[in-house]
Amino acid sequence: MISNTPQTDTVHVVGGGLAGSEAAWQIANAGIRVILHEMRPSRMTEAHRTEDLAELVCSNSFRSDDAANNAVGLLHAEMRRLGSLIMRSADANQVPAGGALAVDRDGFSAAVTKALHDHPLIEIDRAEVAGLPPAEWGNVIVATGPLTSAPLAEAIRELTDENALAFFDAIAPIVHKDSIDMSVAWFQSRYDKVGPGGTGADYINCPMTKEQYDAFVAALLAGEKVDFKDWETNTPYFDGCLPVEVMAERGHETLRHGPMKPVGLTNPHDPTVKAYAIVQLRQDNKLGTLYNIVGFQTKLKHGAQQQVFRTIPGLEQAEFARLGGLHRNTFLNSPKLLDGQLRLRAQPRLRFAGQMTGCEGYVESASIGLIAGLYAAADARAQSLAPPPVTTALGSLLGHITGGHIETVEPGTRSFQPMNINFGLFPPLVVAPTKKPDGTRLRGNEKTVAKKQAMSARALADLDRWIADHLRVAAAA
Q1: CATH number, domain containing residue 375
Q2: Which of these, 3, 108, 170, 285, could form a disulfide with 241 (CB 3.0-4.6 Å)?
């Protein structure tokens, strides 16, 4: 007979990808029993080819391993400090890739699978969890990724009253604010309208002449596009979002009467000249360090995006926190649906991790599995765990997922989008470095390099303090 009493001494992890594998490892290493549920091989997905846990279905690269100058390299370093199984297995199966951490994908997955299989506190259940996890499972992590099976996705949709699962995720490029040339661009809302939480100057505006607009549209149409995968072709666009180049294909003037319309805006740098078209950027995070290009979701390949979008006046030197994309995805509107510990507000026994929460990339997914595992282990011990510092890569990514976005000023649009880790998610330095170690002044790109290095040093120091103050105390309790 099945008991209806919630089981809190055992944690159930649904999904054996990178996030689920990392979560199970962290929980078991905290001394808590784990059942890891993975439906493969009894039920395969469109993308997986093996039954191994943490199978890499796309690239074999974990991207840059430079902890001093790159945000994902910093995340690598933080995860190693936290005893990450994913990073341990990646390091043990590394293949040459310059400054990147790339792995032998089969060796990597085999190492993760063996470590979890051999752990005395981990049981691996090879069966699908069809629908919501049973009510008697009192401590659950759902980490089923972008290819979540239909029954579970539908159950989550019904529980959350959200329709944002299994759609084409249309993402516009996001630019670092400090790389925008404000001698060309300016702040203003259309007709100086003050929206919810707005000031009347909420957008950054980049003006175009007719010649610039004509060249821009031609470049959009000529740019190399990404093809859909076979299993994506029958998934509809989300909310009817069309790629910017598809809009351009519908007529040369379409963009000028859509996201690039110039009405209600006056260029303070040249107030007597009316722009032929205007590209707008909207604040993308609460810190105000990132801005997205409004209406510019795209299927252009990344190289083409950088080339084409840097022809926009004011964006010639743009640094992109992420480039645009359009692909099938499955993720929650996490800032609305999840609390600060990744628990579903509608049913707190369920915690989410990995790509479902709104992060992108192997390492990012695994890191959210890591912190979800630490939170679940703390719950199993009836303890509380303070969040990692927002100055760390892990803390800043968690902050983005659970509340780092801002509500969009337009009704009906969704502002929260998946994100890779990048320095734009970190709180700014209180004092930015201005001088080199030898006392001479930093110039040009040296300032950007020094700022990233200072952020990385701050992150690792703050993480070490957090580990000493919270995790070691919890482990000893």
Answers
A1: 3.50.50.60
A2: 170
- What are the Cα distances from residue 304, in Å, to 128, 170, 222, 285, 396? 41, 17, 9, 25, 29
Residue range(s) defining the domain that contains residue 287: 170-328
Task: Report pLDDT for 7.
Answer: 55
- The per-residue pLDDT for 239 is 40
> Between the CA of residue 135 and those of 1, 139, 140, 357, what are the distances in Å?
14, 10, 10, 22
Query: Quick one: tokens of 447?
Result: 């300032």
19 is in an annotated binding site: yes
Assess if residue 467 is contained within a domain.
no
At residue 84, the pLDDT reads 98
pTM: 0.75
Average pLDDT (439-455) is 92
Within 8 A by CB and 6+ apart from 349, the residues are 6, 137, 138, 139, 140, 343
Kindly report, residue by residue over 15-68, the tens digit of the pLDDT: 999 999 999 999 999 999 999 999 887 776 665 678 899 998 767 789 899 999
Which of 420, 438, 457 terminates a domain? The answer is 420
Q: What CATH number should be reported for the domain holding residue 230?
A: 2.40.30.260
In this structure, are 199 and 284 located in the same domain?
yes
Question: Is 152 assigned to a binding site?
Answer: no
> Does 394 carry a binding-site annotation?
no
Query: Is the bond preceding 41 in cis, omega lying within 30 degrees of 0?
Result: yes
- Report the run of H or E that residue 305 belongs to, with start and end: helix 302-309
Residues 159 and 186 in one domain: no
The predicted-structure confidence for 106-142, as pLDDT tens digits, reads as follows 889 999 999 999 999 999 999 999 889 999 999 999 9
Query: Annotation-wise, does 325 bind a ligand?
Result: no
d(CA 32, CA 445): 48
Domain count, the chain: 2
Angle at 320 between CA 67 and CA 366, to 5 degrees: 45
Among 153, 139, 165, 245, residue whose Cα is nearest residue 414: 165
- From 328, 357, 375, the end of a domain falls on 328
> In whole numbers, what is the pLDDT of the chain averaged over residues?
86
Q: Are 351 and 141 in contact (CB under 8 A)?
A: yes
Work out the average pLDDT over 423-452.
Answer: 91
Do 190 and 317 have their domain in common? yes
361 is in an annotated binding site: no
Q: Which residues contact 393 (CB under 8 A, 6 or more apart)?
A: 71, 72, 74, 75, 78, 367, 421, 426, 459
